[in-house]
Amino acid sequence: MMYQVFDNTTFCVKTFGCQMNKHDSERIAGMLESFGALPVDTIEDADMVIFMTCCVREAADTRLYGQVASLKNIPLRSGSPFKKRLVAVGGCIGQRDGEKLTQALPHLDVVFGTHNLASLPSLLNSAIEKGGYQVEVLDASTSFPTELPTDREHPWAAWLPITIGCNNFCSYCIVPYVRGREKSRTLEDIVAEAQRYVDAGVKEITLLGQNVNSYGRDLYGSPRFVDVLDAVDATGVERLRFATSHPKDLTDEVIERFGKLRSLMPALHLPVQSGSNRILEKMNRKYTREHYRELVAKLRNVCPDIALSTDIIVGFPGETESDFEDTYSLIDEIGYHQVFTFIYSKREGTPAALIPDTTPHDVIQARFDRLVDLVQARAYELNQLDANTDVEILVEGSSKRDSKLLSGKTPKNQTVHAPIPTGSTIEELSGTLLRVHIEEAKTWYLSGCVL
Length: 451
Ligand code: 5AD
Ligand code: SF4
Prior knowledge:
This protein is α/β, with parallel strands linked by helices. It has 14 helices and 19 strands. The chain binds 5'-deoxyadenosine (5AD) and iron/sulfur cluster. The site of 5'-deoxyadenosine has 12 residues, from strand 13.
């Protein structure tokens, strides 16, 4: 299907939330470009603005409303083939609110959900031709969006979804309601896409899913995630990563691949959410603090240098000072290179939203602040271990702070800054692997010089 209406038009995709959303945005950009529309960086230059939304916490929700409302004040560029700018909202808020959004935001033209990215061009086309708003939200996907073209952020790195949806129903989390039940792609599809990327020069592949460890359960229990790791490694990819892992489903076979599988990088994001068994149970996480510690011990046994990162929710309803101390001590004991800390955000429709809570906000904020201090102190300590060592980095571009510096990632996923060697340009270095001597380690990055 071709749509003439996109000739000479421009679009901009604004993305909120997780990597799955960022990846969906790459598919949207790929699709619209294939229909002749041109990507631009700013709303000012865009004839169409597509918001890929997130509702995992309230803050992202309110931000969307503000941003869409403020579009009214930005005039359409001169030379636009349209009479007014088209505004589309997709992703998790689109899925959750559907038509209701057009009441709250009357100048919306298109609402779509998480299961029908592929419908966006036809919905935009109808909005242009017929006027009025177009809403399409489906209950489940009929196919994987991975069959759509992509416009990847970096030519040398690719996200590769292996599952979509989630079956875990953690009691605080809205994701299973807006992303639907877990569906796995076939191993053949995954490997074919990975091989295409490798053949096109992609250096790093990140396998994506809400819980990659339960991959394959809907395919009669086989193949399993470990088979995906082995098969993608065999494509010859330089660097392999995956996210996210639920601790209850992390198997010994997957753990054993760290430090053994050539391409698998020594870094793992393993969200623990809380260190208190009482809270973990109320969260419906289905593991204990002890089990989590055992996983970490096994990981460090096979890969002593592995860099761990995690997610923590502070202030889950009914969290006591003693529950929080359990979280604090676990974070201190394990030692993470990065911890994403969140204050609990009540999401209507989830079981946790029904749990009464009387903990004052300033108590929760104080716990959060204490935890952030600890996280920073531990990250700083761990990074010091890499000072005065040589590491290999994948160059991502120039540093945002200083264009004379290049920025790249170590196998452990630490950011490295180093001066761009004289005689080289950042364009030719981006996407290459370089050896760097680390001179100094800070909390969130390392700095050094190219060897
Ligand atoms: N409130 C706060 N944080 C949440 N997360 C998910 N749902 C909520 C919520 N209702 C966090 C979890 C998850 C991360 C992606 O977002 O820590 O791992
Ligand atoms: Fe949400 Fe839990 Fe699924 Fe992660 S595993 S997406 S936290 S329900």
